[in-house]
Amino acid sequence: MRREPRQRGMSCFPGCRTLLRTTLEVLTVPIAQRPPAPARTPQPLTFTLNGRQATFMVEPVATLLDLLRERAELPGTKKGCDRGQCGACTVLVNGRRTLSCLALALAHAGDEIVTVEGLDDDGRLHPVQRAFIEHDAFQCGYCTPGQIMSAVALIAEGRARTDDEIREAMSGNICRCGAYPNIVAAIAAARDAS
Amino acid sequence: MRAFDFVVADSPAAARALLREVPGSRFYAGGTTLVDLMKADVERPGRVVDISRLPLTAIERSGEVVRIGALARNSDVAYDPLIATNFPVVAQALLSGASGQIRNSATIGGNLLQRTRCSYFRETRWRCNKREPGSGCDALEGFNRGHAVLGTSEACIATYPGDLAVALTALGAHVVVEGERGERTIALVDFYLLPGDRPEHETTLAYGELITAIELRVEPLHVRSHYLKVRDRASYEFALVSVACALRIDGGRIAAARLALGGVATVPWRAYAAEESLTGAEAGDAAYRVAAERALDGARTREHNAFKVELARRAIVRALRATAGSAA
Question: Does B85 touch chain A (CB under 8 A)?
Answer without folding.
Answer: no
